[in-house]
Design brief:
With 272 residues, the protein is α/β, with parallel strands linked by helices. Helices cover 44% and strands 22% of the residues.
């Protein structure tokens, strides 16, 4: 019998992560913990402050390097063109930004927009080595209140970050707002593996191996227990597609990667 904490939550529990329930309950989830709605951002910032220095190394180690393939596929699905202006929400250490900067040259640019300064600083040395460094800039800000005017960007993307935004739907609405009509949207997130046996192995790896390695190599077991907890609370691909459509995106579609461990959603902002 699988341990209780390894179980995947049902639809009702996943709905409790949406803005409406959070507004009614005045509480939000931080992994399996319940925290006051207005304090979650502090919990998230403390979490990423603690992992920022080791973030890139641990991502590559724990995913066996596959996260780089996921990110390349996700950016490719956006169909970026030279000259495009791209917003990378929750852009952190800049992996997606580097890929997008390459695709938008000549003439384009990428703005990394993240609430956590430590994460952006951790990625600066890597970005400074890129030949596209002059086309990437950083702005610290909250994804729920993006500090750009309506219709400012040709594309907007968020990779492995929307799970940590307190009001996820508000974050999606803000990305929709700052996109130009016809602008392209992309969300790359973790999800539930589709094959049962693979999912059991993934569960054991997530809740036992990852926290052990997090403690051993990054000095934080809790930080790498938090990750699989948030994944189990996140909407499944069909549910997320419905949320994006309700936000106003059209042509919403998604692609599962590596048996569904990660999923890429894309959409378009329509209208004048």
């Amino acid at each position: 019998m699988i341990c209780k904490h390894l179980e995947w939550f049902d639809e009702q529990k996943r709905k409790e992560q949406l803005d409406g329930h959070i507004a009614r309950s005045k509480s939000a989830s931080f992994g399996f913990l319940t925290v006051p709605e207005d304090e979650k951002v502090k919990w998230v910032c403390r979490h990423f402050n603690s992992v920022a220095r080791h973030y890139d190394f641990m991502n590559t180690l724990l995913s066996f390097g596959i996260h780089h393939l996921w990110k390349r596929r996700a950016v490719a699905m956006m169909g970026l063109r030279p000259g495009d202006r791209v917003l990378d929400v929750c852009g952190g250490t800049g992996d997606l930004a580097r890929l997008a900067a390459r695709a938008t040259q000549p003439g384009g640019g990428v703005t990394i927009y993240d609430i956590n300064r430590a994460m952006m600083l951790a990625g600066r040395p890597k970005l400074q080595k890129s030949i596209f460094r002059k086309s990437i800039c950083h702005i610290q800000g909250n994804a729920e209140a993006i500090s750009f005017a309506d219709n400012s960007f040709d594309a907007a993307m968020v990779g492995f970050g929307i799970r940590n935004v307190t009001h996820m739907q508000r974050g999606f609405s803000e990305m929709h707002r700052v996109l130009k009509p016809g602008g392209r949207f992309m969300c790359l997130e973790f999800s539930k593996p589709t094959a049962a046996l693979f999912r059991r192995l993934y569960d054991l790896y997530s809740f036992y191996a990852m926290p052990f390695l997090g403690q051993l190599l990054a000095g934080s077991r809790q930080a790498y227990t938090h990750l699989p907890e948030t994944i189990r609370l996140f909407p499944l691909p069909d549910e997320l597609a419905q949320i994006l459509s309700a936000t106003g995106f059209s042509e919403v579609r998604y692609r599962r990667l590596t048996n569904g461990i990660a999923v890429v959603h894309v959409g378009v902002k329509t209208g004048a």
